[in-house]
Write a structure and sequence with these properties.
4-stranded parallel sheet; Rossmann fold; disordered C terminus; 35% helix; D-amino Acid Aminotransferase, Chain A, domain 1; 7-stranded mixed sheet; 2 domains
């Protein structure tokens, strides 16, 4: 008999990665979605058995949890795998209710609150001697006066990409702070801008013990000024591994987790950017490198089997559509066109010949969305731009003081 698995967040690319990682084995996989089937990417996969369309607003984690619980009561699932942050928050907060209905691997609510809140994360990391960017919490407008070195990044403690802005001077700082303060339910923090490449420590934990891990380095991001991986590669640096493991060990984590760092060129060290206490967006890369994270999670939660990986192979992964295509049209040139179409034996893409329909859907959506990006700097650079103020280049580790 096949193992029945419910996976949340059907529109997400990492949900699709889970379906492909499990679909060839003895699993029957259903997904949930806040959108209709036609707008749910996983619906087009040959490995998707059923889509549950949710009615609740995903921002309300209590209502969202109750709707998931209703699905689990009506259909007997052996395993629940939350994917997005809202899903992890909802399931973690109501963990005891979910455990009565199915198997799952999520942390305790108290540590989730540390990992999902940026100012609490930074304070926790500082206590455990993990390098962080120069950070201050902006409780009120008067706190902005203490910031005199630019550029800085301001962000909501509870937000994702839409709650992040680059500030090159006091004018931008006040403008973006006022906006974030009006929409955020938590503190606003300011951090120094770190010049360097993005990288991450990925782990799956069981009751505070690291079971398996993976490290990656970003090659291209969208937005191009800093965002999610469009092209990334397997990576290893013992210092990065030790920082990530030390932080997650201290949290006594349970389940999957990503710790995002940036390599600081100026200080030759890694600095913590944030914790993503969930399954990461670049899951395809991890799986293709030989670490089948979805199977590891199921083995731990359902069978109590610990499968650890001693090593993983080098892979470069290109999310051709929509992510790398967005990078291309944000800064198009002959060289970027050549790079877009280039591959080698170590390069994998998100086209799978045995499950092609989701990729076709991604191409169609990308082509429809392309003009909106190409003709709009706001869509190309939603967080703003770091680099030029009054024709002064500041993106070389220099400080701009007003």
């Amino acid at each position: 008999m096949k193992v029945k698995v419910l996976v949340t967040d059907g529109p997400n690319k990492n949900t699709l990665a889970i379906l492909r990682a499990l679909g060839k084995s003895n699993y029957k996989i259903d997904v949930t979605s806040n959108y209709s089937k036609v707008f749910t990417l996983s619906f087009y996969s040959r490995y998707c058995n059923k889509v549950h369309t949710l009615k609740s607003k995903s921002q309300n984690i209590d209502d969202y949890a109750e709707e998931l619980i209703g699905i689990l009561k009506n259909d007997n699932y052996d395993m629940l795998i939350p994917v997005g942050l809202t899903s992890y928050l909802a399931v973690t907060k109501h963990k005891d209710k979910f455990k009565k209905l199915t198997h799952l691997l999520v942390p305790e609510w108290n540590v989730m609150q540390i990992a999902s809140n940026k100012d609490k994360t930074m304070a926790f990391a500082n206590e455990h001697e993990i390098p962080i960017p120069e950070t201050c919490v902006l409780y009120e407008e008067s706190d902005l006066e203490s910031i005199n070195k630019f550029p800085v990044v301001i962000k909501s403690s509870d937000g994702a990409g839409s709650f992040v802005y680059y500030c090159n001077n006091k004018i931008e700082l006040y403008k973006h702070y006022t906006y974030l303060k009006s929409i955020s339910k938590t503190n606003i923090i300011s951090q120094e801008y770190v010049t360097g490449f993005g990288c991450g420590f990925y782990g799956v934990y069981k009751n505070g013990k690291l079971i398996t891990h993976f490290l990656h380095r970003r090659i291209k991001e969208f937005p191009i000024t800093g965002g999610a991986s469009a092209v990334a590669e397997s990576y290893y640096d013992e210092k990065l591994y030790n920082y990530g493991k030390k932080l997650c060990d201290a949290l006594k984590w349970n389940g999957p987790i990503m710790v995002e760092f940036k390599y600081d060129i100026k200080n030759d060290d890694y600095k913590l950017i944030e914790i993503n206490p969930k399954l990461w967006g670049s899951l395809d890369l991890t799986i293709e490198a030989g670490v089948n994270i979805p199977e590891v999670i199921i083995d731990l939660a359902l069978h109590n089997i610990e499968k650890s990986n001693a090593e993983y192979k080098y892979i470069k992964y290109k999310w051709l559509f929509p992510d790398e295509f967005k990078v291309l049209i944000s800064d198009i040139s002959l060289n970027s066109l050549k790079d877009f179409f280039s591959t080698d034996n170590n390069t994998k893409t998100n086209y799978y010949w045995n499950d092609p329909l989701p990729f076709i859907i991604q191409i169609m959506r990308s082509l429809l969305y392309a003009p909106l990006i190409f003709f709009s700097n706001k869509r190309k650079f939603p967080h703003g731009k770091v680099g030029v103020i009054n024709n002064i280049n500041i993106d070389k580790g220099e400080n701009f003081e007003r």
